[in-house]
Design brief:
Number of helices: 10
Number of strands: 16
Distance between the termini: 52 Å
Number of domains: 3
Helix content: 25-40%
Shape: globular
Radius of gyration: 23 Å
Low-confidence stretches: 1-23
Strand order of the largest sheet: 6-5-4-7-8-9
């Protein structure tokens, strides 16, 4: 007997269901690369999953924020960098409401609690505290992150979108310095429902560490090349945090017997924001079956409402029709899936280029050619912002600015891996 479930044998609520009735905040689409396949032989099908945030936050109102700013004030931040950060922090304060909770932690060799976690009822007083932040000595990132975690988790997390934003311009030079210890802290915060985003300022920070912090924390990684970009970086983070409609999102797969996912697919998703789409591409290998319409995959997103912590769920089926025709598996591929495959190839090429540059395995001519090819692929798939970043990285390579080159490419790779489009620019 064919172990795969035929579509006409499914309960009605599982036939192509884009989302359960109690999931207004999110929906999920499952787009198959080809809708037909040759019956009686093993097949491989690409499925593009698109997780879409609702147009408005839950209940039509913004969920209050529980926000912690963890700011590096080491000696290298003195002058224009720290002044720009102070101004950006004050701009954040001006946009918060009395229902929001804010805490501010600074670190150098020592850690200071500039503002313990409290409701934003006196923005002028908070801004005055921010103005008192001055530069210190070394960079104790571990203790700064720990103190920020204590503040953001010191209040009940139910009813808030909780986010910690870390900004640093250098490598850890004091306290615990090993990345594993730092990432364990971030992992613990994420498990408690706190998103951690990482901002790297200037040429001297460890871009791989900051990207790993953001990836582990389910947040964003941002490369800030100069002081003029600080305000926009903070604004993007704030806008995104204010738009969250679902947190602690996780992909779950149900596969019929004789079907399997090829390769790996990280089930953890970032917070889902209103107006954004998160894409994941999976490949399904199916065993032989008879003719008919079959579900080859059921994909679900389980998440939590940031307002109530109540569960949210949306589901979709990937459907393929198996026909007794040899050319059924050679039908044209869905253009949306083709674009996603092209994007995946561009990301692989970019990673190969970056690794080759770091190990000096490629000539300058090869690097330029590969970067130009990746830029064209990104532009062709509609990722205009990432294509512009690669063009910027190419110019940095040609001018010998290795730090800007690597930090830009790590940021581009992170954005492609995150798979998120839409939302704040």
């Amino acid at each position: 007997m064919d172990p795969t479930i035929r579509l006409d044998q499914l309960p009605n609520h599982l036939q192509g269901n884009p989302g359960l009735p109690n999931a207004p905040a999110i929906r999920i689409e499952a787009i198959t690369g080809r809708t037909t396949a040759h019956a009686g032989e093993a097949t491989t099908t690409e499925v593009l999953l698109r997780i879409i945030g609702g147009g408005q936050p839950v209940s039509g109102a913004r969920v209050p924020l529980n926000l912690c700013l963890v700011i590096d004030r080491s000696g290298s931040m003195d002058g224009q960098p720290l002044a720009a950060v102070r101004d950006a922090c004050k701009h954040v304060v001006a946009q918060l409401s009395p229902t929001d909770i804010l805490s501010i932690v600074t670190f150098e060799e020592n850690v200071d609690i500039v503002l313990p976690a409290k409701h934003v009822t006196s923005p002028e007083i908070i801004s005055a505290y921010i103005d008192r932040i001055t530069a210190g000595n070394t960079t104790n990132l571990f203790d700064g992150l720990y103190a920020g975690g204590v503040q953001v988790t010191s209040v009940p997390l139910t009813g808030y979108a909780s986010r910690l934003i870390l900004l640093t311009d250098g490598e850890p030079t004091a306290g615990l310095k090993d990345p594993a210890s730092i990432l364990r802290q971030v992992e613990q915060l994420r498990a408690q429902g706190v998103v951690v985003s990482a901002m790297g300022f200037g040429p001297d920070y460890q871009e791989d560490l900051m990207a790993s912090i953001a990836r582990t924390g389910g947040g964003n990684y941002t490369y800030i090349a100069h002081a003029g970009q600080v305000a926009a970086a903070f604004q993007r983070e704030l806008t995104g945090a204010m738009s969250v409609v679902a947190t602690k999102a996780m992909l779950r797969f149900e596969l019929p017997d004789n079907n399997q996912i090829c390769g790996e697919c990280d089930p953890m998703l970032p917070d889902i924001e209103a107006g954004t789409t998160i894409e994941r591409l999976v490949t399904i290998k199916s065993g032989p079956r008879g003719t008919g319409m079959y579900r080859i995959l059921k994909a679900s997103v389980d998440a939590s409402s940031p307002a109530t912590r109540q569960p949210i769920r949306a589901s979709a089926d990937a459907i393929v029709t198996f026909a007794d025709a040899p050319n059924a598996s050679s039908a044209p591929r869905n253009p949306t899936v083709s674009s996603a495959l092209g994007l995946h190839s561009a990301a692989l090429d970019l990673e190969k280029t970056l690794n080759g540059m770091r190990t000096m395995s490629f000539s300058a001519v090869d690097v330029t050619r590969m970067l130009n090819r990746t830029q064209a692929m990104l532009a062709q798939t509609g990722r205009v912002q990432e294509a512009a970043q690669v063009a910027d990285a190419t110019r940095a390579f040609q001018s010998g600015n290795q730090d800007h080159l690597e930090k830009t490419l790590v940021g581009t790779l992170y954005a492609l891996d995150l798979g998120k489009t839409g939302g704040p620019a």
